[in-house]
Amino acid sequence: MKIDVVDIDNKKSGTIELSNSLFGLEPRPDILNKIVRWQLAKRQQGTHSVLTRSEVSYSTRKIVRQKGSGSGRHGSRRAPIFRKGGVYKGPTPRSHAFSLTKKLRRLGLKHAISSKFANGSLVILNKAELENQKTSDFSKKLKKLKWGRVLIIGREDNPKSLNFFNASKNIPMLDFLSVNGINVYDVLRRDTLVLTKSAVEALEERLS
Description:
There is one protein chain. This protein is α/β, with parallel strands linked by helices. The protein has two domains: 2-45 and 97-207, 3-Layer(aba) Sandwich (Ribosomal Protein L4, Chain: A), CATH 3.40.1370; 50-90, no CATH class. Helices cover 35% and strands 14% of the residues. The chain has helices at residues 20-23, 29-43, 102-118, 135-145, 159-167, 184-189, 197-207, and strands at residues 2-6, 12-17, 122-125, 150-154, 174-178, 192-196. It is elongated and about 95 Å long. The relative contact order is 0.18.
């Protein structure tokens, strides 16, 4: 299947043939959901913690005598049933990460890219290059392109590509990632996915 290629001035600069195995899949919400949960779980710090009975600072003196008081036979104020006592089975620091097979992760990325193509939210850019790294000049070009919230995947192989990367740093709702950094979560969270021609070639070689 073919798609038009545009330049940074939104002018058509040719067409490109896209691989059906990467761009023509029927998106699977269950796979995409699993990959996104896997990514977000790895980001969780897991530092939540409470004080247990053994960690609460309190007197260990027996509260009342064993018999004759009419009270229960409590041995410590640190028991969970008392105010300021320890917490029973509360959260402790742990890792929330879980593992997924490499095959499933690759498949998830394919489905994420295919979903953008199916929705008409995929743009192929000739080159992610600018003559200078002025954010103001780049912002004017973006207004004409009307990409909205956009993720741009390209390479930083030359100074002009580096200009593009630097100019995009301070623009809200725009992310610029290298081909090696592409991931399902960032692809889905933006309205438009922009791939350079070199990025398309690299992805097809990597995911074929």
